[in-house]
Structure prediction request, 226 residues.
Amino acid sequence: MAENLRIAVPKGSLFADAVELLTKAGLDTTGLADPGRKLIISNPGVDFIIVRPTDAPVFCAYGGADCGMCGKDTLVEADLNVMEMVDLKFGGCRFIVAEPEDAAGRAEQVYERTGSLRVATKYPAITQRFFAAQGKQVDVIKMHGNIELAPITGMADYIVDITATGRTLRENKLRIVDEVLESTARFIASPASARTDERVRALAAKLEELAAQQNEVKVTAGGEGK
Prediction:
């Protein structure tokens, strides 16, 4: 008898949509929507491993899960040996570069004068890659809390962060100066599982079909030119 398919399911903002999509894909998700303190929900044929979003690629890369879900941002930041199989079309956000509204252009002046910038972020790999592509030298300050404070207090010239609506930026009087990347949830798998486990490939195909249907509904509801 085959072992259960192990799927890493991200906690947090992606969780509800992930559970809904897995249910629509025909998996037995009994108990998953409200797992309490359980870290693994086991149902016939499948084990759902509930993880932090940043750990989903780690589980897939090192054999803790056959497949899973996480944001594109998490995937890029982790830079691990996992296969991105499907854009799931939910959990949309974007990475931006921002500076204080009352210091517009000051960072560029600093760079012209010193040849370097200080950038605060929770995502050092994405940040380094973005500025390296522009040929700019940056000193990345890794933070875990409210990075909006970094430029406000003069600790950094820029921040690189995720935004969905821009509300937090506006409330803290920060303005967007550049776009880094757009992110949505992705279905990922270990290369070995994607290659040898038909269940992973079948699930990927079903999720791709469901994501396309959901995206079509959103476009139709939005109308043309929205």
